Amino acid sequence: MIARTLAPKLKSLAAQFPVVTVTGPRQAGKTTLVRHAFPGLDYVSLESPDSREFAESDPRGFLATYDKGAIIDEAQRVPGLFSYLQGAVDAKNKPGMFILTGSQNFLLHEKISQTLAGRTAVLKLLPFGLEELKRVLKKEDDPSAAIFNGFYPRIFDMNLDPHDWYPAYVQTYVERDVRLIKNVSDLGLFQRFLRLCAGRIGQVVNFSSLAADCGLSHNTARAWLSILESSYIVFLLRPHHRNFNKRLVKMPKLYFIDTGLASYLLGLSRPEQVETHYLRGGLFESMMVSDFLKYRCHRGLEPNGYFWRDKTGREVDYLIDTGSRLIPVEIKSGRTIVSGHFSGLNSWNRLSGGKSADSFLVYGGVKNEKRNAGTVLGWKNATSALES
Hints:
Arc Repressor Mutant, subunit A; five-stranded parallel β-sheet
């Protein structure tokens, strides 16, 4: 089993809160993580029809069965259980009683806000980050293979072919979760929408264009994108507000949590196809930005990243907001560094008064270097920028 970065934080919070909730996409390894972290707790999955019927019809009796605590998997499947959970944990007031997992953030967040506010800590577990896979990728210097394979644990645990696994993932999980969150009657149209999103990976979202290309209303396109966000399929990177008296791009950029899924949706069937694909830059950028997101989430921290772009085309791919300073990161998929790669960083530093010593360039190679224009980081070491 590949150790998960989130495990220490999960155990720490369970020693403080009566309930800890772990959310994240399906097949990200939530069940494996919590069962390994809490071997003494009983386990029950509300995906099981029998367990779900028991919890729905007799919630008090269900919780009494697990009066010493339990891991409750896919807890959002029985929304009515949360009110009874509140009473159970208030009566005993003991930390680490229940560990909840769920793959639909929208449904979980709604119920937690209503009934378990102040009683539960919430953590996100995403697919593997590069730091978790360093042992597996020790000899892997090809970012295109990493982009194509993606980062879902089962692909590595079972040595599965991503080209076979991702179609099943979309059909088995994505489509089913969509139906649970929102009544989408035309799943074929939704799949088209999902593929169109993959075709815009790493780009600023234009809702009108996205809606028109799919034959949807503007509001429906926004709602469907929210579904993909709450199911941990895509995420939106917000623009930073600092404007230096220039007009800024105000719409977010679209990324996929997992580039393997995006590669499948783009019709790629082999890693070599990533090399020549017109969206290779967007896929690489998505992999790196997603890795920054994982680094923060897997330590129980909120994301602290943005992008910056003004109307004249000057931009920085990623801005790390530490609270006291902004650290610019430029992301380039090429394996060779050229002086033009630093143009965005140079523009930012001129406008902001920043220092090149605090700037980073992440690229598709493996060497780390100190240069006059900034620090160069190989793609497997990109999160070093977050530790500066």
